[in-house]
Write a structure and sequence with these properties.
It is a single chain. The protein has 6 helices and 13 strands. Helix 3 packs across helix 4. The longest helix is centred in the middle third of the chain and has 17 residues. The two termini are 20 Å apart. The relative contact order is 0.17.
Length: 233
Amino acid sequence: MTTVGIVAGASRRHLRLHRAYVDAVIAAGGTPLLVPSALVDHRLAEALRPAGALLLTGGGDIQPERYGAVASTTLLEVDLDRDEAELRAFRAARERGLRVLGVCRGAQIMAVATGGTLVQDLPARGLPSHLDASEGAGYAALRHPVKTEPGSLADHLLAGMDTVNSHHHQAIADPGELLRPTAWAPDGVIEAVEGPDVLGVQWHPELDVRADRRHLRAFQWLVHGERGRGDGS
């Protein structure tokens, strides 16, 4: 059984991690290993040593200086410790040859870690909002179709599904040296990036697993490798 390392962000009193990530890893047959983002030194790699894979989750904005930019818009929930911990965790996972899945912010972290850049605010760049601001809509209520590169891992993950959910105001602009885009929203926003043993998705599959088990495919890939296995048919 694969142990999946997950870096958990923190507030002043609590670790912060949406339970849906943990549930999705368990449903895919993995064992979650939570590591606090306060570990920003050599102990982070030690804490992740039992892990056979790494999951980078959604959350607040990444500090622009991390990708050679200055803040040009309002940034939300920037956490310098979490930025550092996840960048270190990703690099450590790459050195060990582990599979890595990045969800939303997690996909963006992978791009930044390999020399990529981000769009700090989609509407400010003249692109449609990927956040549903309607009253009472709920988290990730917005949905849109996605175009995938035929034969890609993203194409396999979304086979038979017409739309994905959306909840982000930032996105990958340049995927960096390791990753290549393999899925796009209708407005051209990058929705998936891939590299050797690395997958990033801009949507939140963990939130849709209960409604449609096919969204479990990303986590089955993380736990089992190749194209995954199990009941995410």
